[in-house]
Design a protein that fits this description.
Distance between the termini: 15 Å
Low-confidence stretches: none
Strand content: over 45%
Largest sheet: 6 strands, antiparallel
CATH topology of one domain: SH3 type barrels
Radius of gyration: 17 Å
Helix content: under 10%
Structural class: mainly beta
Strand order of the largest sheet: 6-3-2-1-7-8
CATH architecture of one domain: Roll
């Protein structure tokens, strides 16, 4: 079970995009995340007529390490640390450390 998953709202805590928020698009295997409209880079792309892709300079999201982001707590609208808790029915869920609210519904 990972602390940050696809679809979570996160806030960037360090780096060039500090303070920006976004939704996690992809979680990569080496603790890296791709976040919507965060860490944008320019890629020089060759045209591919078979796929109908034009060439040129395109902007895309680059991966950012999971240690540089925090899960956004909707109650406080700030970044919060994540812990785990086992419910009475045996499910293991993520909880915010500050107010012990369950992240997963």
């Amino acid at each position: 079970m990972h602390r940050i998953r696809k679809g979570d709202r996160v806030i960037v805590t360090t780096g060039r995009d500090k303070g920006r928020t976004g939704t996690v698009i992809r979680v990569l295997e080496d603790d890296r995340l791709v976040i919507e409209n965060v860490n944008m880079v320019k890629k020089h792309q060759k045209p591919n007529p078979q796929m109908g892709a034009q060439g040129g300079i395109v902007q895309k999201e680059a991966a950012i390490h999971a240690s540089n982001v925090m899960l956004l707590n909707p109650a406080t609208n700030k970044g919060d640390r994540v812990g785990y808790k086992t419910l009475d029915d045996g499910r293991k869920v993520r909880v915010f450390k500050s107010n012990r609210e369950v992240v997963d519904a």
